[in-house]
Structures are given as C-alpha cells and as structure tokens.
## 1
Amino acid sequence: MRYKVTGGSDGVSGLDVGTKRYDAGDEVELTAKQAEWLLEQGYVESVDAKTSKAKTVVEELTVEEETEL
Amino acid sequence: MPTFIHGKSSGVLLNQFDLSAYFNSVDTSQSIDTAEITGFGSSAKSYIPGLNDATLSLSGMYSQDATVGEDVVLSTILGSTTTPIITVPMETGTIGKRAIVAKAHETSYSISTPVGDVVSITADFNASTDGTSNLTYGMRSGVMLTAGASIAYGALAALTSVDNAASSASGGFANLHVTANSIAGGTTTIKVQHSPDNSTWADLITFTAVAASTTTSQQSAVSGTVNRYLRVLPSTAGSSGAITFHVSFARF
C-alpha cells in the first residue's frame, strides 16, 4: 500500500526504508507489517484510504443534486 | 558474567568541547526525595517518591590552554544563563556503551595550587531541566550512539544501531556535541532515528543544522514511544572537510 509521510509530531520527521530516504510529504510504498508501527506512531497516513474517502464524499453530493431535480 | 569496565576509558564532553584529557575523575549522583506516608496501625514506614535530583563533580588537572582549555571553559560557564550540556561516556570510542547524559548548572569551580604537586581543579554541577518541554530529568543514564571519530563529509551515513532490547513509552533526550568541524560549503544535519525492527527507521530527533566549520552543542527531548533500536543519521550539504561529533541518548 502507498502511504504519505506526515512528518510526525515535529512536522519534519522522515523515514528510511532500506536504502531510500523519504521526507515529510513524500509517498512511500510499505508492506502492512512495515506500516503498522509507523501508522500507530503517526509517521505515515494511508494515501489509498484518503482517496477512497474522498470518492465517497463526491458520490454523496451527486445523490443530493439528483434529489433536487 | 557482568561486564565490568575500567575508569581509564571514560571521558568528559561539555558543550562543544571534549575535555577528557583535562580530567581524571568524575562523580555523579542521582537521588529522589521520598515523603513519608506512614499511617496509624502500620508496622513499618511507607514512602512515596518525590522530586528527582542529580549532581556531577569533575576533578582533574589545571591547564593554561587558551579557548578550549578546561580553565577557560569552566570559568566561562560559571553563572552562565545558558545551561551547559554534559555527557560522560563510560567507555569512549564505542557505540552502544553507557553514558551519563545531562544538562547541568555549574555551581562551583575550584583551583588548587600546592607547592609540591600539579595544579588541580574541581567543578561541581547541579542537573536542571530548566522547565524544558519533554525534559523529565536533567540527568539520566543512557547510551552512546556515536564513536566520536572524525568522519569525512563524503562518508557521512547511518551509524551502527543500538539495541535496547525493548521499546520504552516515556520519551527521552539526546545530547549532541560537535567538537570539531571543518566541513565547508553547507550545513550538516544530525538526526537520531528509532525503529522497532532495525530495518525501517523514522526520525525521532532532528537537531538544528550545524553551520559550516562550526562547533556547537545541542540537547533535544521527546515524549512518547521510543522504539527498541536507535541510531544516528548524519548528512551534509557541505563539499569538503570532516566532522567529529558525539551523540548520546537517555530514555525516561
């Protein structure tokens, strides 16, 4: 899954995964096991989860428009 | 079998100075007040812990070295509003060895000049949190995350990790002493990273970038989870030179 590096509590914390460096704002591909502690401690957030949530909101707005017509 | 060590390998890092060669004895003491809560009907006294306190004493040889000598340094910090940052590595030169990590006010500085012996000095310190955010204690036992060797600008990379065997939940603090720095052309950034698996790392502490060709010291404290493994990640935008720095970390 893809995750966005949040910067952690100080806003600037990055990650090192293998030999690659990811700074705050970067996206990183992680396994579920790798991501578990990073999610728990607030270093990353799921990009996929944010995307699906945004889609849901758009669908709800569409329904409201159809009702008004 | 317990791992005993000899005192000869200890050191003294004070602000941006490695003063190890000037001292031959370090005494530290950590204590905690206890308040008695013994009630009627008790058969033995009971106490609850109160405030933590810690002191540090240095003794050694007087020197007339200018700028970086211990007399100049200890005279300057006496009464300074900036609290000195102090690390006492118990076995210098090896990552993972224990250290006393402290921020402490100098409370006295004495020079003894006997006619028949070397001129000697003593200095006493009181640990202080100064109300710093996340800094629970002014002095704790910790570990060295660096070997204190000079590293060329092109060779700066993650250092060997230290395994604490378990994570901790109450934060901690790190001391950085940059004792020599000839890196030119850009700043040097030193981070403390943590990891639960020694594989994927997150920045725990990012010290303020060290300016080119500048020696300095910093302390930074964090709250919350500190994972099992710790390491130091230095990097630089500089294009020449080398840097000697020491990082220690103590968990609360």
## 2
Amino acid sequence: MKKSAKVTIAAVAAMGLAMCGRRHPDPCAAATFNEMACQDAVRSGGYYWQGSWFPMTYSYPYPYYYDSYRRHVVSGGTVVSAPGRSYGRPSVSAPGGSPSSGVERGGFGSTGSGHGAGE
Amino acid sequence: MNWQKKVEEAGLVWHTGEQLYWNESAFYEFTAKEIDVLEAATNALEKMTLAAAQHVIDNKLYAKLGIRESAIPLIESSWEAEPPSLYGRFDLSYDGANPPKLLEYNADTPTSLLEAAVVQWYWLQDLYPKRDQFNSLHERLIALWKELAAYLPGRRIDFCSMDDVEDGMTVTYLQDTAQQAGLEASSFPIDEIGWNGESFVGPDDRPLGAVFKLYPWEWMVREEFGKHLAVAETLWIEPPWKMLLSNKGILPVLWELYPRHPYLLEASFDGPGLMMSWVKKPLLGREGANITLHQPGKDIETGGDYGAEGFVYQQLAPLKSFDGMHPVLGSWVIGHEEGNAAGGMGVREADGPITGNTSRFVPHLFD
C-alpha cells in the first residue's frame, strides 16, 4: 500500500502550541512539566522564562502538580519539557546539575549546541 | 484558511525561516510506474546497505570511515544484538527515465519526516483527494512501534533532541506515533540527560531504559557522556551500528560490493580517479556543508566545519532541473523487513545543485 489511509496526530499540535508558539510554558502544567522548575516556581510564586519573570499563583503545594503530571502521563498524555536552563535565573546557572542529586547533566549536546542535529 | 495556518496546525512551524521551507506553489507529479521504480530501488538499497554494514564489520574498515576505536565495540555489539531500529532516508536523484541513483543515506538522524508523513498528506486530501501519494509512513511508524514494544523496557520510550524547533518537532511527531502505538513516552532536550554513576537518567532522575535520540552517534561517542555508553544499559534508537550507514564512507563500500549497480554512483575513498565530474563529500558531513562539486572548468564549494575525518569522491549525478529547481527525492525506510521497508517519499528542491538545510519541501502525488 502506498497511500496513508488515515493520519491522526495529537501531540504535534500540542507541541506547536506549548513550545513553538514562543510562549512561556508553565513548568507545573502537566503537558510541559519540569520537576525542578516547578518546585522552584511553587516556592517562589512564579518562574523565570528565558530570563524574564512570570509571576504565578500556585494554590497547592508541589505534590499536587506532580500528581497531575503523573496522571497526565499515565493516561497517555504528551509531555514536552522545556530545558531546565530556560527557567534559570538571569546570570545564575541553570537547574539540572544539582550536586545534591548526585546526577551529572550536560554530557550530551555540546557538539550540536546552537543548531539542530537532524539532516 | 491560508496555507501557513494549515501547515502550522499539522505541526510544521518552521515553514518560514530566512527562506520559504514548505512550498506548495508547485508539486511533483509521478506516474504509478515511476513510484514502483522508486519503491523497488529503495528496498534494494536497504538490502545492499545492510550487506555493506556487514562487510565493514567483517573487514574492520572502521579507519577508512573515520570511526574512532572507542566506537567499535558499540557498533559490533549492537550489530550482533540486533536492537530496534526505526527509520532512515535515502536521498536519490531521479529523472524519470534512468534508474534512481543513491546520493547518500541519512540512516541515523533524518528529519523532514513530519512534512513527508503528515503535512503533504493533508495537502493531498485538501487539494487532490482523488489522487494518490507514495506515503504510508504514519501508519507504518505506528505499526512498527507496536512490534518494537516488546523490546522496550516497561513499554516506554523517551525521545530527545537538540533544543531546536525542527528537531523538536520531529521527535514530538515520533513520540506521537509511539503513544498511538500504546507506548508510554516523553521528550526532552538531549542536554537534560543525566548520569547518576550507574545509569543514564531523564530530567526527573528516572533511569532511561530506551531512548530515541535525534543526535548523531559520531557526536555522542566523543562527548563527555560517551565514556558511559559502553557500560550503560540504555537501549538507543537508532542503534550504534547506524554509524556505519550514515557515514559517507558507505558509498565507496557499496560501489566496491556492487560495481556499476544501476542504483549507485561510482565512489572512491582515494580521489576522483577517472571521474570527469565528481562531488567531494566529508565522511561525516551534514546538510550540504563542506561539499566540493567539480565539473570540467568549474568548481563549486560550500563552507562548514566538517572534513577532519576525511572525504569521499562520488560521481556527479546532475540533478535534473525543473523550472530551475533541483529536486532530491527522500525515500524513507521504516524498519528493515526485506523487500518491504520502503514507506514513502518527500521531495526537497534547491535553487542550486547542492541540497542544504534551507532547501524547500515540495509535495508530490501520482496517479
């Protein structure tokens, strides 16, 4: 068969809205959840996005948003997390390499920095 | 509704960069016979390239391909283990009269998938619903993910790429197809991958069982985390052996194995030899960078940062000009089922003879 019979996409349209519309994705929203940035955002009453501050009112403690994210994932929802550095404070290194977690990050991606890797 | 809105709704948000990318002011029309020719060529090339990979491994031709020693165990173990592999794209020249010719094989990190699988299909439905298109990419991807599910720990696959719009859209589209196949999935930038001393982990510190990475193997093996690849249990798609096929060195290997094959252009590691018109390509070049196109009395060169590992020389296959445009056919393989890997096609055209990352995607149809 050479012809597609049916093409249904869901995540791509969501991605277009969430990431590529140049908005500032809420790190506590299930579809754009970023664990560390959400914790910071709940604590601080807002978050930085590309160096700009966006005040937010989070009515619940962090676990509420994490649980919402997990329910979203379990039900088959798409998650498109922005890179942690996008939520970094101006002139402050990005979250993600937290020594307290014992996890190193940034070990892949340096060669392609600043451009795409597809062809 | 204007076309920009239509293609944005289908996910193509990089259609207007510095130059127009998606172009539907024209389309390419094929006959059913021509599509049969392209499908057969793609299936044949798929089989030939797998044989070429085996030949490289059997004869330890890694140095000729500029592959560093640390990558060899990864390549050989993944070739033996036959881990899942999803897709690839043969770039072909085709004039409708002579057999298609392989220009190169984007086996590791091909993009322009969303345009080929979805956007041009919407275009066909909107404008020519009674016509046909060489395109079963979408349902084949979903079907393949269902087959691969048993190989993916926890029936889960995580997707990562550079923080780049086109790459992000490509992996998000693939994520969509995986989720439609019933897999649990997420996506994140590749620099968010972590190492906890034992395992690669995601942004939430969860060990990564299987990852689709839109990031070249030759970059991964030389970056900081490359040293962990041999010990980590993460299953990577595409697998490391795709390093052999995405390398331009596979072109002279193919020519050596199948001399004068109708789908191949003469190619050599050692120089142009008796070729009158040729293209010099970096072994690990990308997006038309560092290309020299030689014709008697005329050379065209493109800039870039590639070429340190060496070059190959390939006979020039002049791209037939259509209204001044030079089309390259991107013929996709989904999976590796012998004789049935070809899944669809996209056409990119450039003003000049070298197709780069600003070439335009043009839809196609056939009767």
## 3
Amino acid sequence: MAANNALQLTSVDFDGIKNDLKTFLSNQTELGDYNYESSTMQILLNLLAYNTYRNSFYLNMVGNEMFLDSAQIRSNVVSKAKMLGYTPRSVVGPEAEIQVTISPGGSPSVITIDANTVFSASVDGRNYVYTNPKSLVVNANASGVYSGKLPVVEGRPLTHRFTVSSASPVRYVIPNDNVDTTYLTVRVQESSSNTTTTTWTQSTDITGLTANSRAYFLSENEDGRYEVKFGDNVISKQVNDGNIVLVGYRVSTGLDSVGANNFTSSTTMGGYSNYTLRSTIASTNGSNRETIDSIKLNAPRSYTAQNRVVTAADFRTSILSYFTDLQAVSVWGGEENDPPIYGKAFISTKPKSGLYISDNRKNEIKNYLKDKTILSIDTEVVDPTYLYIRPAINVTYDPDDTTSTASGIASGIESILTSFETNNLNLFGKDYINSDLAIDIGNVNSAIKSTRIDVKLEKENKPITTTSARYNISFNNRIYHPHKDHMYAVASTSFTYQGRPCFFDDDGNKALRIYTLGAGNQRTYVNKNAGKVDYTTGRITIDDILISAYEGDAITFLVDPDIDDIKPQRNQIILFRNARINVVNAETNNLEASVSNVTTTGTSTTTAALNSQSATVGLYSAVY
Amino acid sequence: MATDKKTSVLVRSSLPEFLDTEGPKFQAFIRAYYEWLETNNQVTDRSKNLLEYADIDRTQNEFIDWFRREILADFPKSVLADKKLLYQRIHEFYKSKGSENAYKLLFRVLYDEEIEFYYPGQDILKVSDGRWVKETSIRLAAPFDGNLEDMGGENITGTVSGATAKVLRVTSTLETGINVFELFLSGIAGTFNDNERVKNAANTLSGVVISSTGPLQGVVIQFGGAKHTNGDRVSFTSASGTGASGVVTGTSGKSISPTITDGGSGYRVNETVVSITGGDGSGASFEVSAISNPEILKTFDDTISDLSGTQIDANTYITSNTGTISANLSIANSGTVLSAALGTSNTIVGTISALNSITRGSNYTVAPSVSAIDSEIFDLRAPDGAGGFKGNNAQLGAELVAGSLTNVLIDAFGSGYNRSDLITISNTTNPAAENAIAAPLVSGIVTYPGKYTDTKGFVSWNNKIQDNYYYQEFSYSLRTTQTVDAYREIVKNVTHSAGTIMFGDHRISSNISLSLVADSYSYLLIDNVGFQANTSFGALSVEHIMGPVGAIASTAAFEIDNQLNQTISPSSIASTIDVAVFDNVFVVEIGGASLISIPSALQIGTPALESTITLTSIVFDDTFTLGEFEVQEYSSNTASQLQSNTFNDGITVPQVGEPTVE
C-alpha cells in the first residue's frame, strides 16, 4: 500500500499506546498511588497496551476499507466502485481468425459451420479452447474450393439457468470465476412449459430505460463473481415468477493464450471431416480481469465522465474501460496538435499485445465515441509513433571490489536497460530521465565507480519511392545546437537521390542539405536547401523531393538532444535502440567488455512498426 | 468527538460481584482502561464513530479528502465552496460538463466568482451569414374587442376574407389620435382585406383593418420630375405622413425644360400664357416666373364705344368707367386733346427672364415649340420697335431633360400617410433634381421591406477574419479576475472540451465605494503605481452610479481604448461623470467638468449634495498584471483650491477620509 493511500484512525505505536495508558491511569484519583514501573503493573500495562494495539490495527484495517482509495480488499473496492456506477472489467478472451478450407467430396451449395464449434490451440505447452461465436456459411469459389475466414474467441461457452421465484428469491450470480462478460447473453424463458424466450440487453444508462425495457444490470459481487440484476417495473421491466433466466457466457483464461496460431479441431466442419485450418490472425486483444489498482484509478474517472466524453481524461477513461485490449491511450485536443486542428480530438492507442491496432479497431473506437462526444467535436484515431533513444553507456569499475567480471557487469547493465525500458518507458507520456537510468546502472554492482550515459535520438521515416513528397520528422525535443554555424546537428542513413547514394546533414543555420560521400569521405553537396531544421522544436522538414530508394527499412534520422532528459509528446513512445555498453577497468583504464546493439523492445519491434506505419505515409509523413 | 456509547459503564456489571468488595481498585483499574479507550481518537471512540466517518454529512474534516479522491479527483484540495455540499451534488456538475453552467459553477467553487464568456467565433466574417427577414403585419384599429396587446401567439382570421395567420408579436401606436395595434404575422394563408374585422380563434379579441392611414408601402408616379438617377435616395412626404424613404429604381423617357432665346417685351408674370405645342411627349406645363427690363405701358382705360356720335362739347353726361369723361366732354374742355381727355392707366410689363416648369411632362424625344402671349398687351398692338408687337414677341423653346422618375423602391415605410394625400418625392442625393409627384399606396396589410437583423456577413464592419487561433469556431474566452495560469490546468482537467481552445480575458475588478462630503469639491483618484509600466491597457470599461444617497441620479458606461495617456473629449460624454486616464493616473471625477483641461475647468462635486460613486470594474486583457494601486479622495472647500493642484506624482492636496477598496 502506498504511504499516502493509507488511512490511519488510531496510533499503532505500541510504546506510545502504553505510555498514553500509563499517563491516563496515573492521573486517575483512585489509581494515582500505584507504582506503574513495578513488574506487576508493567505486565498489566503491556497486556492492555497490546490489546489496544491489536484493536487499533484492526480498526485501521477496517477504516481503510471505508474508502475507495485506501481499500485493499477487492470486494470492498468493487463495492465502493459500484456506488460510483462503475463495473470492473471482466477477463476477456483473445480473438483470432482461422481460414477453414473444406473438401466435402461433393458439391453442396453451401456449408454451414455451426456457432460454438470447438477449436484448440496450444501456447507454451498448454491447450486452450477457442470457439466461434457466430456460425459461418461457406460457399464454393470459382475453383470449387470451400473456404472461409472464421473469427474465434478463447473460452468455453456456458449457459446457466435460474428459475425466478419471489417465494424463494435467488441471486442471479454466474457461478464461475473468470467469466468473460463480452459475450454475455441474458434470455428470459416464459416458464418451464412455455419455451418462448426473449433476449434482454445490458443497461449502461438508465436514463434511456422505461418500465417496459427488457434490460439487465451487471455488477461484480462480494465474491468477485458477476451478478445479473433486473428492474422493478419502474426503472425497467422485472422478471416474473416462473420465468427462467438463461445466462450465457464464456469462461476464459484471459491473456494466457494470446499469440495462439496453431488451431486444430476434433469435430467436423459443417458435417465434413476433410478440412484444413490455417491461422490468418493469431489470437490477440485478450485481457485479464481488472485489477484493484485499475479499479481505483478508473472508477473515479468513470464517475466524473458520467457516461459522457468531454475532457481528454474522459476520452481516456471511456476508451480504456470499453476496449479491454488496450494497454494505454493518449488523447489530446486538436488545439494541442502540431499543427493545431480545432474541433477534433486525437486518440492514440497502444494495445496490450503488439504495437498498433487495426484500422477496423480504430473505426470501432470512433463509432463507440460517436454517441458520447460533444456534437461538434470529431475524433481521429492515430497510431503511436516511436522515438528511439540510442544510449552509449560507459562505466568504470574496480575489479578489487567485486568477484564479477567486466562481462558480467555488462550483462547486468543489459538487463537493467531492458527492465528500465519496460518499466519506465514504452508508454505514452513516460519521460526518459537520464539520471534515473544512471542510478539503476550504478546499483548493478557496487564495484561500478562511475557511469556516463550519452544519448542520441533516432527517428525513422519511410519515404515514398515513386513520387516526390514533403516530409516532417518531429523529435519534439530541442536539438543540440549551441551556436550559429554549428553544423552536423542532423545525420541520416543512406538513401538514393538523383540516382546517387546520399545522406542528410545541416549547415548549422537551419538549412537541411543532401550530400554524397566521395573519396576520403569527402562530402559533396547535391542539394544545399533540401529543407529546414528547427533546432528549438526538434522538427526537420524535407521539401518536395523524390527519394527513390533507401537503406534498410527506412531512413533513420539521428540528432543529439540539447538535454539528456527526453520528453515524449502526444502519441510518442520512447524506446531504447542500438544501445552500446562499455565497461572500463578503473585501475588499468582498459576497455574490458563491450556490448553493442543491446536487444531491447526498440530493436526487436522496429520492423513491425515501420511496416505498419507505411500505410499512413502521405504527402506529409507522420507529423505528431 | 468522544463517543456517547460508553462501554466503561458496563465494566462493573460485567465483572464478578465479589470484586465490589474484594477488588474495588481492580474494578476501577479496568474501568479506567475502558474510559481511556473512550477518550478522543482512541480505539473505542474511533470504532464507535466509524460509520459516521463514512457519512459525508457527519464525517470529520480529516476524512474529507478521502471523499475528494473518490469523486473529485481532478479538483484541487482547496475550494471555497462547502465541501460536504459540493461532494454530494458534484454529479450534477459532471453531467453538465463542458457547458457554460459547468464553467460558472467551477469558478464559483474555486474562486467564488462569476465569470463571463466570449466566443470569438461569433464575430467571424462568414459568407452568406447575413440574417435577412421580411415581415408582414396587419394593422388594426377601433372598434376593438378586448385588449389587442394580448394577441401575441393567437391564431387570427379575417371575418370577410377568411384569411388566417399566427400572430408573432404586437406593437401599439397612437397615430393622429387613433390607437393602432400592429400584429406581426407568420403562416399567412389567404389575403386579408382592408376594413374587414379580424378576430382571434376564441373571438375574444378583434379589431378592424385600418387602411385610411399607415405606412407608405408604394406609390403610383403621376409626374416623374427630372434629373433623377437610378440609385438616388429619395424621401416621401405628404400633408399627413413622414419618415418614408427609398431609392430610385427606374427612370424612363424624357421631360422638357424651358429655354429663353429672347424674352421679348410687354409681358407680365401672371397674365402671360405659355403654350407648348408639338413634340411627342405630354404633360409639360410652364409659366412665367419673372420679368426683367420693366417698362410702363400707358393705356387708355375709358370705354369709348359709348361716345359714338357724341358731340364733344355738348356737355353730354356719360357714365364713364373712370368718371372723368363727362368732365372732359364739357364745353369748357372742348379744346382739350383727346388723349388728355380720356382716362389712362400705367401697366408695368417687361422681358421674360425666367420660366418655371409646373410639370415637365414625360416621354419627349422631340422637343416641342413653346410660345408666350400676354393677350391684353398684345391686343394693344404696341410696336416693339423690331417689327413685332409687345406681349407676343418672345422667342422661347424647350430642351429635353433626362431623369423622369418611373419607379422607386421604398425601403423605409414611415408612418401616418393618408391615402388621399399626394406624395412629393424629393431626391436627397441630388438636390438639383426636380420633385416627382405620386399617389400613395396605403393598406392595413403591410409587407415590410426585408432587412438584416444584425451585421453578420457585412464586409468592412465589425466582423473578423478567421485566424485559425483566436478567431475561429472552436475557441472561447473566459473573463475573470483570475490569471489564466491559475486555472488553466484545472479547467482543462475538469470541464474543458478536447478539441477547443481556451483563452482568458483578465478582468481586474475592484469595487470602490466612498461617500463625498457634501460641502466640498471632491474627486477620486486611483493612482496605478503598481501597474506594469510597459503594459498597454486592454479594453477599459467603467461603470458608475452616482447621485444623492437614496436616489440614483444618473448612470453611464463607456470604454476607453487601450492606450495610456488616453484623453477623452468632454463633449463626447453625455454624463455628469467624466473619466480620463491622465499620465498613468486614472481619475474618476464627480461633476460635469473636464479633467482634461486641468486646471481651468476642474469643477467637481456638487455642494450640499452627498454623492456616491461606485467603480464596479476595470477590465484589462489577460496579458496585464495588476499590482497594487492607490485610491485617494481629495476634497477642497472651493473649486479653485482643487484646481490649483496637479496630478503628478507627489501630489500634495489634502486627503480626506479613508476610501475602501474591496
């Protein structure tokens, strides 16, 4: 429990309690003559003080459970959240897509794959059940092949029945843990003899209900299980005696099976056993049930939003609570965009798995927000952009102070880099604080005597190779440029311009230049005014030029930041890339270990990031 | 709070009875322990009050913040509003998040201040943004049923025409002693008739459509005048109505104007007939308006036909029109020459020097011939010395003149036009143009010319060009005394709509109230010594209320442009209060004189009249930082004493009283 989140009703300092008690007793007229330092009195005082101490402890525990921010027991947190109208998110089964190709041995007009056909997939040696929520009708193509793409979801579908009785009322509690409420269905059958059923819908806003609305309310109960509740013929329609409530749901393992792509099935497909399965989209978008900390964070935000989306915080809360596959959301109004675009709110998301969400998912977010935003405000969902820090880490160590080798120290620093990136970066709004990393590295081994970290910033741009275009590359951090005429603040990897391999640099006076390398690495400039460099804002603007090819996956721009603490803006996420570690013996001054290109999230995800980004490159590349 | 639910009182009954006698000290010891637990903030006290701590109405201050963390996470800890009440009602704020009311509540909660809004987008120039309306009304006069002021919102019907309409609003006027109600209509079906009775659906309200007088809705041109040009502004007057104006929209054909080649001789103004013959137009009529070169023409004015056959010396008595003939015909006068014997008179005649166009006619393309004859003179056959005779020897003509008015558009209908009074149309753009004459079109059913309801869409007006920053559709400005930095983040987190941009107009508002002594000349001086010297003033508005205690004598409100050393012409302020910014000194003056012309006109205050001046606000823009400023009241027994002082720093006039600045 964080210190500022603990509520203290009474003191739990034993000595303090004992002294207070002793003082109080000694001040009583009829007890004032006792020697409170005697062994007998000490025993009594210790006993009573200890009793008081225990009671104080329990009282504080109880007191902390009174408020959302200090409560520690999930049921109490959920209960407080319930009063704020917040329902914690359930576990969500990952989704995948399977290409099913059937060889029926004949020519049926269509083949129907029933809903809830069971598939299995293994991840890390454990099998998971996937089923398709909807049936799929497969037609033969021109070649007579029966093939279709089948969306599947992890989790076993179950149905539970409750009979309504006012004489023996029951709570409609789903008797399973790990229920995925995404696919929750509630149907009400008239009676055991009348099998007519009606489907009821979950209410998220009672203002739209009438006494005849067939709506149900979902909440998490004191046992952490989900409970369905119905109306009272005032707020919404109530269920009647004899009705049978049929609750359909899935039991899911959440994130455990994310990445599954080896689907098999032991059943027939539409009655045919000759078929092949191929994973077209590996399972993604799953999540575990909402944690206590998340509930504490989101419930107040949900309460302030009141199911409306006005402020940037409202956007974040609303999107995160509905789209459970998202790890983080960054929202900024168009007034904060560069350039400003008023009347629009920008949303950037980072999924729990992968780097980008699909265009379909973006549209789903837009559509979800349509009914919640102010009428005149438009929304746009954009991908995150990645700003890479290239750290050059130089440490000196005293071999006399450690049994570790220089390589061992370097290895430890590698681990620190990876964990620092995971824990301190890799999300929207996470600043890179150079000194924090230096402290972490210094703690790797007590033999480390000094740590120096030089950082450079990398940003990539994937140009259009078929036509000339303009580009903006925004570092959003000031570029080191101590004085006028300070050249080469900008560097780049190689690209082809006017048929020759070229590079970018700057003239020290805001002009971006293109040069080729001749003998002895002499720079020959082929374009001395290819764009502008704004050293203050960290923006590089490339004028209308044709770049016909480039080295690697994209052109990498490299700059020195003016200060080593880096702040991401809007949808920027900071990652490490091309990190280098040098370990120097402080006694001999010899370089004893060196690691280059440390494997980090930045290095391992770059290619995927660029491939996804390429679809958005237009006349101006990503500006944000 | 110490609990009232005591456990200590149960100690004695809970312990074995023998302790009453054998262990009273022990009993007391145990009871004291429980009493200690019941003291403030000890375990029993806390546990017994636990439920109260969780109740927002009964909780203690130390737990208030825990409620804030749950439901006001984005609000600062320190607010001026009652926290318990605020926490209970805050959901209502959240439901109106983004609205003006939410902003207003937020500022009341945080600063106990009312704010104002300004939306720059309202003042952006937009294409086709002008609001054009064209109203139709029906004018009703007596006899009335009911009070026609209540006709607003009623559906009305013409009792003869059957036409129907809905009444939007009602105005009443008194026109030449007649009470007239004008009903502005919408959804008109059919055509109302003049002079018919119009009633509401319940038949409780009615009146008769008045058509004898009213706004001038049109004219029928009778004489087009001359020299009018399309686009000229014209006014319409008659014996009864005024206020109508319009614009010339059509002139056609040509009129004629008289010319004088030779004014001849022997003409008189009123007896000369000017004839217009020939030409292809019609309607022209001229008259002699002046003669020159006057001469006396002596004529015999006795009628001599009665003397036929009469002997001159026969003493015949003849009745004469002059009364002199009888005497002249006496024997005694038989030698008198005839010209002396007959009665004579002198007639003044002259040369035609000016002709007036009674009407200029119209549709002339060939000029007519013009002649003038004074028949009486001509009949004398008095030779003119040039072979002709006086009274018929002028050489006149006519020339074609353009601009005969055929159409006008009336864009202001005026009032009180009687349908029987001819209208004179005067050209106000070109005073040299000659008036046209027209018959009025007056009806009780009035279709007013269209008009713009505001200046939206007016180029070169008060509208701004969109700048994609301040002047754009998604910006708003809060006018408050708080600096923007103080509330920007709070507003952004709590109620600011993402996608819009917020600005702050820094309103510096100080309430200054003081009473000036009745028997002295006084002024109030606010010395802005704390203002930043290099800061320009934003829009500065001052509102005053002054007057004797218990009655407000006058009010005034005006603005000073954003400049230091601003001077105001006293004549531009129609108030007994003058305001000036004078060398960094802001002065509010009571009295009617000017501070600008210090010291000569410094007449301040009204002796024997206790006055109160309230400076309700000084508004600057948000770049302005207010420092401390001084308020001083100065009084002198005489105006001259006060006038002898200057407004420079180090002013030494006596200070009277302690003005209050809130």
